[in-house]
User: Which sequence fits this backbone?
């Protein structure tokens, strides 16, 4: 049986983390071939992570924290803690998700190299289409530690981004690369506590409050939407992150903006909303868009790399992030019932059903782990 570390930033609500959880849960069906341990860099203890850790425990999935609650300390000393866990647990494969795990893993690999110790097989999933946008030199430092490891793109564009990054740094592109689309099951219908107003059109934002996700743009656009359409829409903003204070300010300034902390099993509760809005600047392949389509909730989406791949071609609810008028036109059409919503829901559902099957993703990674360790 192969032992696999799923290395993530923290146990939080994020697409990369959900992929790691799904792999840990489902890769052993129909027969047990792997032992998974979820390893987070930064210790988490918010309500979402507590619930998720209970869920992992209930499914007999182990998890470990490499560092304290401090992100800085976790990054500074996480490689020593990871080295200790590798020596103790002796994993066959380390599967790293996103840039910060890649950073810590690269330092751990350097430690093992210095002492001439054998290192586990490395699998890296590239979850984004923009890599190291603000820390170019750090990105080069990280990438230099990797040579010909297994590289998985969650979309065609994310694999292109990896290749372009390696070429920019004048580093060899790995020969062992493939695309495995993120997949998910059709969500269930679970009870929720969202403050849905049946007299309004309920729009949800679900994700991290970060620059990448465009939450700052959404806050500005809500002002324009409210100015033009008064109080026809109710915005539900779900998540946490750097822009939390700005989001809370928006709730104080607008009666039709409600904020919630990250919600466990959010995929099973998206059905509550009329629309999901995703104003991302860039993505790898975002699961919540796929989950919304499975839930038959139309997605209002910024035109962005990685994000557009989750929806059918010529999707009418797309807008350029810097074009306020395009987004206002979409909201005008929604308010005026100009879209055939039944047709849109069925179109999106059929598209994701064919392209983003959880079984396809699980089968792809299961075969990859076996190939990688041969």
Assistant:
């Amino acid at each position: 049986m192969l032992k696999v570390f799923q290395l993530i930033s923290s146990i939080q609500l994020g697409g990369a983390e959900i992929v790691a959880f799904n792999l840990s849960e489902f890769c052993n069906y129909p027969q047990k071939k792997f032992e998974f341990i979820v390893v987070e860099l930064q210790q988490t203890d918010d309500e979402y992570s507590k619930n998720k850790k209970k869920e992992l425990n209930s499914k007999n999935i182990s998890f470990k924290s490499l560092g304290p609650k401090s992100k800085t300390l976790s990054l500074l000393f996480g490689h020593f803690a990871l080295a200790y866990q590798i020596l103790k647990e002796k994993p066959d494969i380390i599967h790293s998700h996103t840039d910060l795990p890649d950073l810590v893993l690269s330092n751990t690999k350097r430690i093992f190299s210095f002492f001439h110790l054998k290192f586990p097989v490395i699998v890296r999933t590239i979850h984004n289409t923009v890599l190291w946008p603000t820390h170019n030199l750090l990105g080069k430092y990280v990438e230099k530690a990797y040579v010909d490891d297994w590289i998985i793109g969650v979309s065609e564009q994310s694999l292109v981004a990896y290749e372009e990054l390696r070429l920019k740094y004048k580093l060899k592109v790995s020969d062992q690369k493939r695309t495995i689309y993120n997949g998910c099951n059709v969500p269930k219908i679970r009870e929720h506590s969202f403050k849905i107003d049946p007299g309004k059109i309920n729009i949800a934002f679900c994700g991290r409050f970060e620059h990448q996700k465009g939450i700052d743009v959404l806050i500005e656009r809500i002002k324009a939407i409210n100015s033009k359409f008064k109080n026809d829409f109710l915005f539900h903003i779900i998540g946490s992150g750097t822009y939390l204070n700005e989001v809370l300010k928006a709730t104080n300034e607008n009666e039709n903006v409600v904020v919630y902390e990250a919600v466990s099993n959010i995929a099973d509760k998206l059905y509550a909303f009329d629309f999901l809005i995703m104003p991302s600047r860039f993505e790898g392949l975002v699961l919540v868009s796929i989950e919304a389509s499975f839930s038959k909730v139309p997605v209002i989406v910024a035109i962005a790399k990685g994000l557009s791949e989750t929806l059918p071609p010529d999707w009418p609810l797309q807008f350029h992030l810097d074009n306020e008028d395009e987004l206002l036109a979409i909201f005008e059409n929604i308010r005026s019932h100009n879209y055939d919503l039944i047709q849109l829901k069925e179109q999106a559902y059929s598209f994701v059903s064919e392209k983003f099957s959880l079984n396809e993703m699980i089968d792809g990674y299961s075969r990859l782990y076996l190939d990688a360790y041969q």
